[in-house]
Design goal:
The protein is α/β, with parallel strands linked by helices. The chain contains 30 helices and 28 strands. It has 4 domains: 77 residues, no CATH class; 286 residues, Rossmann fold (3-Layer(aba) Sandwich), CATH 3.40.50; 241 residues, Rossmann fold, CATH 3.40.50.2000; 107 residues, Immunoglobulin-like (Sandwich), CATH 2.60.40. The strands form 6 sheets. Strands 1, 2, 5, 6, 7, 8, 9, 10, 13 and 14 form a 10-stranded mixed sheet that branches. A 6-stranded parallel sheet has the order 17-16-15-18-19-20, with helices on both faces. A 4-stranded antiparallel sheet has the order 21-22-26-25, with no helix packed on it. Helix 11 crosses helix 12. The mean pLDDT is 93.
Length: 850
């Protein structure tokens, strides 16, 4: 049977036409007044449509449209919201005001998942939520940025728990014609598509657009009739399939994404790789420059390297995206042949150490070698990443490995409850939403009366409890639980009891079962007659992670114990909607990862923006955000060698904190029933953390520290037919060829006078440079206090200047500052230098004095 398809649009009266425009722009999802418009039409339908306004408008009875079109109050509200929407789209943003001379700037942001709204399920967890919040803040700031990703037919799985508590996975298909996505078309009306060569096959991908405020997100889709069934399934499922499927997805994302931008007529000046999945984008950019601009591999690499930003989110080696080298060769060999290097040379780019041409290929290693700007996602993660990737720069000091840090944030308006928005707007003014990174605005939190803040918080806790009961009832009914169990769901949790939230991916390192280490003690805490505690759990385990599934099952079995069944709840299918209720309605957000395996974590940031208090291990962002006036730290800044001892110590500390600090402060009330000390901590959480851990600050930091320098490099290297790129590539070749001839010898330091704190010591170095000139090298003195093993501790560096030259040698000199007493020392080294280099550590050529 042949089915001929056509698209049917809802018949929306002309007076309500703005509803369609609002539904097709995800601006609505962080603007409560826009959401209220759809709820006002039909609250139950809004919820059953998974808060997807496009689907809702398609299902709304025609008589509801006609009635709303005659409702002058609704029309007035619609016009007001649409006027704000239009003003938002057309007003000048921060970027245009701050950088009016950068009209040609455009960044392209590549990520394998985007968590923007629950009605667009193309995300799995924290990486996707971070990507979505990045796009939202780019829109708010007016930053010229486009997103690139894949349109997964089934997205990530929906979690369903059976009666025994075992996780099962369900993969419902997405109906794009009833979601806020639209096909991109050319001026002649034809669909925009690209053809990507994948292992000898020509795979066609059409391009869809999701409009996120002012920021477009372009998504590639291979599920079309032109492709074979094998090709169509490439965009079938997020993180699904075997390794062959994963590499095909990453080829499509990286190589196809670059092609899609060209097909759309876009010319980004900066490319941002968000995690290593899209690193093949660099290969395609090099290939195009070699083919279309006549550059060599070295010249094209120079340009791509200088204009690429890479963010790694992986704090442990096992978490890296690594492919078998034979599999990479199957898919990348044709492109490598076109860029003019041997396969072994390309394979080395994916090696996890400098000498390596092993049988595996690391996507983060490829991205690190082809990106001038690289960063971790918290200060601690930056340090962990420098240590983890030190082998790529073995001759550098660990702290000099060129991986910086830009701490993650959250899109404030997407995660703060509308009640809190109204309260903060009343006392802080609108600037806290327009410029949430402005700390001066948050300082006004102290002006909020305690009673008003507490009233809002209690309302949100009550709303969260109602939501949990409703979800639990539906969960039990679907499972076929008995009527008694279903009825009891209406009694779980108490809106007046201290409520903990623990919601995240159930992976072993996150230690979701730490609270169950001593079940008897935990039960005692939960059922304390004077200071009871309750907790809501949520989270998914990876489909192949049976350990994570067992942990979820154990929590559910624990929750069914007599005496705690109303105090412990596990809500299935954790998503944006569930997260929003929990981070707005709980009192304390608990996080128990194994330090330092949490790169950043953002759920605690969402909680703190709502005035919740964090109780967390000093890992990721909490290592920076912790203050005793706004939460509690679990453990010390210590990494244990024995996992069992670590868990025992941390669980004991967790119970102690809950019993001796958290519960007493929460239940300490004045004569009006208000917990003044708790509210003081809430205000500190809002003040100290809200102005820092948000994506407005994060995106501005990326812009100023990475995007704008990369954009400047784009202009410099592309001018005059890529003359500068060619010049630097030629210089690099000269340096590589001549580096073996570089040697250093430091001259003895004078010892005839005492050296005191504050004195300067002159250091002179005789350098033999072989075929290189003095301007080709940077000679440095690395100095500082020396420990008992003879190592320099917390070293500083000083560049040395040319003093004289004779007998084929050049003498460099410089002064080192003696900043403290005790044993002091220095070492000297040379690295390549060119005035137009972004940083000198590529290629990783370093010569130390022997």
């Amino acid at each position: 049977m042949r089915v001929r398809q056509f698209d049917v649009q809802p018949n929306i009266p002309e007076r309500l036409a703005h509803l369609q425009n609002l539904a097709m722009n995800l601006w609505f999802c962080w603007n409560w007044e826009a959401v209220r418009l759809f709820i006002r039409l039909d609250a139950k339908l809004w919820e059953s449509c998974y808060q997807n306004p496009v689907l809702m408008l398609g299902r709304l009875p025609q008589e509801v449209f006609e009635e709303a079109a005659q409702d002058e109050s609704f029309i007035a509200n619609l016009e007001k919201v649409y006027a704000e929407f239009f003003s938002y789209l057309t007003r000048r943003g921060w970027f245009e005001r701050a950088h009016p001379d950068k009209a040609d700037f455009q960044a392209a942001y590549f990520s394998c998942e985007y968590g923007i709204d629950e009605g667009l399920p193309i995300y799995s967890g924290g990486l996707g939520i971070l990507s979505g919040d990045h796009l939202k803040s780019a829109s708010d700031l007016g930053l010229p940025l486009v997103g690139v990703g894949l349109l997964y037919q089934k997205g990530y799985f929906q979690q369903q728990l059976n009666l025994d508590g075992w996780q099962q996975e369900n993969y419902p298909g997405n109906d794009w014609y009833n979601m806020p996505v639209a096909l991109e078309h050319k001026p002649d009306g034809s669909q925009v598509s690209v053809t990507v060569p994948i292992a000898g096959e020509s795979v066609v991908a059409r391009v869809w657009r999701v409009q996120v405020g002012r920021t477009p997100l372009y998504l590639l889709d291979t599920n079309i009739p032109e492709n074979s069934p094998r090709q169509r399934e490439i965009t079938g499922q997020l993180y699904g399939g075997d390794r062959d499927m994963r590499i095909r997805q990453e080829v499509l994302l990286g190589i196809g994404g670059v092609k899609a931008l060209a097909a759309l007529g876009l010319k980004p000046t900066v490319y941002h790789i968000n995690e290593g999945h899209s690193a093949f984008m660099c290969v395609e950019r090099v290939r195009e420059l070699v083919k279309d601009r006549g550059l060599t591999w070295a010249e094209a690499r120079e340009f791509v390297w200088a204009t690429t930003v890479f963010t790694t989110h992986t704090p442990v080696p096992a978490g890296n995206e690594v492919f078998d080298l034979a599999l990479v060769k199957k898919y990348l060999a044709p492109a490598v042949a076109e860029i003019g290097i041997t396969w072994d040379e390309f394979a080395a780019l994916g090696g996890e150490s400098r000498p390596g041409t092993a049988a595996s290929f690391s996507m983060p290693a490829l991205a690190l070698r082809l990106s001038a700007f690289t960063n971790g996602v918290s200060k601690l993660h930056g340090r962990v990443s420098r240590k983890m990737w030190h082998d790529l720069w073995p001759d550098l000091l660990e702290d000099e490995v060129p991986i910086k840090s830009v701490t993650n944030g959250v899109h404030t308006r997407s995660w703060i409850s509308h009640d809190m928005v109204d309260l903060l707007d009343r006392y802080l003014g609108p600037r806290f939403m327009e410029n949430p990174e402005d700390q001066r605005t948050w300082d006004n939190v102290d002006d909020i009366p305690d009673t008003e803040l507490w009233r809002v918080h209690e309302l949100r806790r009550e709303r969260m409890v109602f939501f949990v009961r409703k979800r639990l009832r539906a969960q039990l009914m679907r499972q076929g639980a008995g009527s008694a169990a279903v009825e009891l769901s209406d009694e779980v949790l108490d809106p007046a009891v201290l409520t903990l939230g623990f919601a995240r991916r159930f992976a072993a390192y996150k230690r979701g079962g730490l609270l169950l280490t001593d079940p008897e003690r935990f039960v005692k805490i939960l059922t304390d007659p004077e200071r009871p505690v309750q907790i809501v759990f949520a989270g998914k385990a990876h489909p192949q992670d049976n350990e994570g599934k067992e942990l979820i099952k154990a929590i559910i079995h624990f929750a069914r114990q007599t005496g705690v069944r109303n105090r412990v709840v596990f809500i299935e299918d954790y998503d944006i909607n569930v997260a929003r209720y929990l981070v707005q309605g709980c009192d304390v957000w608990v996080n128990t990862p194994v330090r330092p395996q949490e790169a950043s974590g953002t759920s605690g940031m969402k909680a703190s923006a709502n005035g919740l208090l964090n109780l967390s291990v000093l890992d990721g962002w909490w290592g920076e955000g912790f203050t005793a006036e706004a939460g509690w730290m679990l453990g010390e800044r210590t990494d244990y060698a024995d996992p069992a001892e670590r868990d025992r110590v941390d669980s004991e500390a967790l119970y102690n904190i809950l019993e001796r600090e958290v519960a007493p402060i929460f239940y300490e009330r004045d004569r009006t029933g208000v917990p003044r000390r708790w509210i003081k901590m809430m205000k500190t959480s809002l003040k100290r953390l809200g102005g820092v851990f948000n994506t407005h600050r994060m995106v501005r930091e990326y812009t100023e520290r990475a995007y704008l320098p990369a954009h400047a490099a784009f202009g410099q290297l592309s001018a005059d037919s890529m003359a500068k790129a060619r010049e630097i590539a030629k210089w690099r070749a000269k340096v590589r060829a001549g580096w073996a001839g570089v040697s250093l010898e430091a001259m003895p330091v004078r010892q005839d006078a005492e050296v005191r704190v504050g004195d300067k010591v002159n250091v002179r170095v005789r350098a033999r440079l072989g075929a290189l000139a003095p301007e080709d090298v940077l000679v440095q003195a690395i100095y500082g206090s020396v420990d008992h093993q003879g190592n320099i501790v917390n070293p500083s560096s000083v560049p040395m200047r040319v003093a004289e030259g004779a007998d084929g040698a050049v003498t460099f000199e410089g002064d080192i500052s003696c900043t403290q007493s005790g044993q002091f020392g220095f070492a000297v080294r040379a690295v390549p230098f060119h005035k137009d280099l972004i940083h000198p550590f590529t290629p990783p050529l370093v010569t130390w004095e022997k």
